[in-house]
Amino acid sequence: xxxxxxxxxxxxxxxxxxxxxxxxxxxxxxxxxxxxxxxxxxxxxxxxxxxxxxxxxxxxxxxxxxxxxxxxxxxxxxxxxxxxxxxxxxxxxxxxxxxxxxxxxxxxxxxxxxxxxxxxxxxxxxxxxxxxxxxxxxxxxxxxxxxxxxxx
Length: 152
What we know:
Blueprint: H1 5-32, H2 36-62, H3 73-88, H4 93-115, H5 121-151
Helix pairs in contact: 1-2, 1-3, 1-4, 2-5, 3-4, 4-5
């Protein structure tokens, strides 16, 4: 049996927080990275996170709920940690990539948890598609991080 509407809205709002956290985190890293390539990657990932949040917000509204429009407290700590780590590491690209990978690990876990729920078909389809995007983001960031580690 599918989750009741309130629980489905709760799951979606958790994922909206995850998307917003990713958007803020990637934008923060884009501001601090040194190379144009990474700035472009981080900016593109932030845009994908923003679009994901918008899609989920629309689903919440379709279900008659109130969509979350901010990030989580954990995300705020994540964003603050990016700034602290960036300062301590001299805003190295490797440090930014490591932090982004950590953020994407957290996003993957939240999407996996959501997919364990018995979601309505249209919601499940959207969450599965976004989960695949988070996996691609994670893999790209990990590859770039590995390359940055090899260069140091």
